[in-house]
């Protein structure tokens, strides 16, 4: 879906993105992760031509984006940024309707799409349609920002640190909601983050960048088990690798026959959460809804990278 070929951006004598090539299949999520100044945001902005590359090219659906007028390209690509970027004097409905109205959708279709998205993001249209951004919580503002980016049904959604301003509890819920929504809509998503845990949680593939260079581009489990460089290893955090690995796997992948006492956990519960439950309550095994158990021993083996396969 997205092909980035030998993309380079240079400002005078400084190369901020250096010969980067990667592809994002249709309906998948690529997480760009790195420290400040690594070039990840510049790379993202070259996809929709907010930044023009010095050399190389970007193709979306096989079409070179440099052949398209920038304003038309950006209407086809959703874009969400940290702090939501809502227009402060426009209502929620007017914010979400921005691109559909630029595309001259009929007004009844615009209204239907606004209400559809508000319902999708669990914001009752009757309550939220006519509110101004300052009347919303931070989490609600962020959801409206993502809804606006999705309003014209783009095949591609770009997100630049979209959850950076949210507190940890709201951020975790926003990440979970985004992942569920992306899977439902099949949108191809590229997200910039400085947080490896967020990259592991969301990305089908992770691109690790440093000083403009792409150091590794691989599925999360591959990066966790086989970091390509010392920088990648440090970014992961040696003490966090077992927990990252556990977060990638639902307990359904580790279920074995048996019985255990106590309340059953859902098959979709992450192995990380199952381990926390075992350790906190001193349990050697947990029953799983639908039958079977997950054992503390299997969870620990998996944390060491010797258990069932991760995504």
From TrEMBL:
The keyword Nucleotide-binding applies. The keyword DNA damage does not apply. SMART domains: AAA. Residues 2-236 form the ABC transporter domain. Keywords: ATP-binding, Nucleotide-binding, Transport. It holds the Pfam family ABC_tran. It comes from the Bacteria. One of its GO terms (molecular function) is ATP binding. Belongs to the ABC transporter superfamily. This is ABC transporter ATP-binding protein. It comes from Paracoccus pacificus.
């Amino acid at each position: 879906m997205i092909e980035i070929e030998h993309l380079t951006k240079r400002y005078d004598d400084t190369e901020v993105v250096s010969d980067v090539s990667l592809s994002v299949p249709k309906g998948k999520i690529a997480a760009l992760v790195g420290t400040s100044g690594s070039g990840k945001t510049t790379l993202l902005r070259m996809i929709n031509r907010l930044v023009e590359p010095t050399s190389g090219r970007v193709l979306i659906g096989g079409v070179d984006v440099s052949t398209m007028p920038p304003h038309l390209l950006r209407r086809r690509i959703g874009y969400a940024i940290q702090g939501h970027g809502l227009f402060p004097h426009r209502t929620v409905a007017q914010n979400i309707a921005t691109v559909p109205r630029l595309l001259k959708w009929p007004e009844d279709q615009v209204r239907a799409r606004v209400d559809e998205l508000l319902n999708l993001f669990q914001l009752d249209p009757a309550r939220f349609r006519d509110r101004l951004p300052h009347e919303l919580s931070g989490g609600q503002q962020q959801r409206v920002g993502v809804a606006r980016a999705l309003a014209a049904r783009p095949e591609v959604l770009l997100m630049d640190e979209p959850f950076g301003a949210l507190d940890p509890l709201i951020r975790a819920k926003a990440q979970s909601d985004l992942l569920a929504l992306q899977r439902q809509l099949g949108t191809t998503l590229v997200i910039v983050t400085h947080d490896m845990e967020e990259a592991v949680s969301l990305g089908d593939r992770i691109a690790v960048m440093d000083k403009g260079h792409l150091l590794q581009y691989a599925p999360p489990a591959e990066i966790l088990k086989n970091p390509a460089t010392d920088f990648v290893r440090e970014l992961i955090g040696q003490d966090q690798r077992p927990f990252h690995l556990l977060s990638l796997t639902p307990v359904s992948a580790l279920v074995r026959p048996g019985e255990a006492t106590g309340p059953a956990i859902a098959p979709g519960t992450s192995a990380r959460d199952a381990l926390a439950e075992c350790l906190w309550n001193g349990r050697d095994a947990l029953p799983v809804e639908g039958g079977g158990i997950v054992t503390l021993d299997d969870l620990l083996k998996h944390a060491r990278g010797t258990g069932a396969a991760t995504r």
